């Protein structure tokens, strides 16, 4: 697996956003992981992409969302026409003075929802124009481009959030509940070490009951279900993409002992970690 890091000084001055034509979106290795956000507007493509073991077949006129630190398998996909945008969360956080800004959208950090949205021709044309404008301004960067691109990207993400919500029946509006946004951020930062509802409730300085209500309201699942699902995703990534043995993975994910990890994994998947690794290596 190839780990890709964002090059802030690619254009000389520090810029936290970049873009590329879809047919140039290539990697020397088929499985990659990034430290930045990726949004791809695909006018024409063939095949499917695997993100954290979930296969997604792609249609023309679709948009794909890839948050950082995911395992992305590009073996079975061919991008023929479109544009990819790459940016660090800081690119928007600084502008809005909001460290939770990127967590306000439904599509980047959803555990059980698709990582894409299929669009009608009218919808696609409305967002593809924004992709083109951003792409063009990055390649012809001016003194005011950073602010202009941020405003375009904000407009684009809001638009995509609406389309995504309509198609996948998510909450829809840009989330503004600070405790919920902090919970989503904490899940990404601390899931390897915090497994209980109480730990997150204590960190947020709210009750378990209140956290559960927020989780049900915005994600449709209890906070325990959300935490377990995110922990399972982390376990699957370690099992499939690391060279660690199962006991080492159990230790790194802060389970008290390997048998406890085995029980957790079997309860949620119906199979042992060893069999899961073996099945996917075939």
Q: Would you list the SSEs in sequence order as H and E?
A: EEEEEEEEHEHHHHHHHHH
Assign an overall shape: globular
- CATH topology of the largest domain: the name is Jelly Rolls
Helix percentage range? 40-55%
Q: Report the top-level CATH class of the largest domain.
A: Mainly Beta
Count of folded domains:
2
Mean pLDDT: 89
- Give the name of the CATH architecture of the largest domain: Sandwich
CA gyration radius, whole angstroms: 19 Å
Briefly, what is this?
The chain has 282 residues and is α+β, with helices and mostly antiparallel strands. The protein is 46% helix and 18% strand. It is built from ten helices and nine strands.
Description:
- With 282 residues, the chain is α+β, with helices and mostly antiparallel strands.
- The protein has 2 domains: 2-168, Sandwich (Jelly Rolls); 178-280, Arc Repressor Mutant, subunit A, CATH 1.10.10.
- It contains 10 helices and 9 strands.
- The protein has helices at residues 90-96, 121-139, 145-168, 178-190, 197-204, 208-219, 223-241, 246-252, 258-269, 273-280; strands at 2-4, 17-21, 31-34, 37-51, 54-57, 62-66, 72-73, 77-87, 116-118.
- Strands 1, 2, 3, 4, 5, 6, 7, 8 and 9 form a 9-stranded mixed sheet that branches.
- Helix 2 (121-139) runs antiparallel to helix 3, helix 5 (197-204) crosses helix 6 and helix 8 (246-252) crosses helix 9 (258-269).
- The longest helix has 24 residues, at 145-168.
- It is globular and about 55 Å long.
